[in-house]
Design brief:
Blueprint lengths: L1 H26 L24 E2 L10 E7 L2 E4 L3 E5 L9 E5 L10 H4 L4 E11 L2 E6 L5 E3 L9
Parallel strand pairs: 1-2, 5-7
Antiparallel strand pairs: 2-6, 3-4, 4-5, 6-7, 6-8
């Protein structure tokens, strides 16, 4: 008896999967007969919105934005790199890159981005009164006017 029940559960799961696939196909836009449908890439990103100045980032806490600015100071600790846009950085917007991502860049982020204009995209958060974006993927940050800074 348990074997029959397991088979019934597998059959129900299979039918549910077929129903989901059918719904996806029906929801897709129509296409010409004999042509292949181009499915969107899962790793594709939307076109970036207009970048805001780093000085305005604090006004966007809780929102995902692209921030533009020239890195005036960088600090590399044992576990984190901080990119700051003023030498007198306390309380101003910063970009945070944890050590687990450092190897995803062609050079150490503290030297790669220092004195260069960057674009960073992400959720602006408030950390102890300081607005920041914590980089979770190297694809979030790039040199202004360049392709993403992450290694190929």
């Amino acid at each position: 008896m348990p074997r029959r029940r397991a088979e019934r559960v597998r059959l129900q799961a299979l039918l549910a999967g077929v129903a989901c696939a059918t719904a996806l196909l029906l929801a897709a836009p129509p296409q010409e007969p004999g042509t292949l449908r181009a499915w969107p890439r899962l790793d594709a990103t939307e076109a970036p919105a207009a970048a805001i100045s780093w000085e305005k980032a604090a006004e966007h806490v809780g929102k995902s934005v692209t921030v533009r600015g020239t890195v005036a100071r960088s600090h590399k600790g044992a576990k984190v790199v901080h990119l700051n846009f003023r030498k007198d950085w306390k309380g101003t917007f910063q970009v945070v890159i944890f050590a687990s991502l450092w190897s995803d860049f062609p050079a150490s982020p503290d030297t790669l981005f220092l004195d260069r204009e960057i674009l960073v995209t992400g959720m602006v958060k408030d950390y102890q009164g300081t607005p920041e974006i914590v980089v979770e993927s190297a694809a979030q940050i790039r040199l202004a006017g360049d392709a993403p800074a992450a290694g190929a």
